[in-house]
Amino acid sequence: MELDKINWSILTLLQENARLSFAEIGRNVGLSAPAVAERVLKLEESGIIKRFSVDLDFEKLGYSFKAIISFKVYTGKMQSFLKFISEMHEVYECNRVTGEHCLIMKLIVQKPNELENIINLFSDFGESTTSIVLSSPVEHKVFNQNKN
């Protein structure tokens, strides 16, 4: 699907606030609400928009410790490890990567000892390097091809 400037503007607005009405978006991009609705539907059908979601404040939910774990999975353990972590609410993102480690995971926990317990559980599947997140100066950045 070819994206014009209006589609990019719609995507930017929705990334900033997915609860905007089609009328509000239309006022920003110079289209009617039905025209915006049609464009959004096409963006969804093409798979460019995968879902509309909520951005949680983990600290307000009591999860004040974030960690990034680089993980090197033992031979033959990848599928069982991926299944294992997919069932853990503490693991909120996992990426397969190149380099010495094959996975990078983002975790949230309420207390440091919970992180220690998770690291101990992971040791059956491979070797890990853990970093505690001190702050996130760039987080949930809006992607817009038209911005310089």
UniProtKB/TrEMBL annotation:
Molecular functions (GO terms): sequence-specific DNA binding
Entry keyword annotation includes Transcription: yes
Domain HTH asnC-type: 3-64
SMART domains: HTH_ASNC (SM00344)
A biological process from GO: regulation of DNA-templated transcription
Keyword field: DNA-binding, Transcription, Transcription regulation
Alphabetized Gene3D superfamilies for the sequence: 3.30.70.920, Winged helix-like DNA-binding domain superfamily/Winged helix DNA-binding domain
Residues in coiled coil: none
GO cellular component, one term: cytosol
SUPFAM superfamilies: Dimeric alpha+beta barrel, Winged helix' DNA-binding domain
Keyword match Ribosomal protein: no
Protein name: Transcriptional regulator, AsnC family
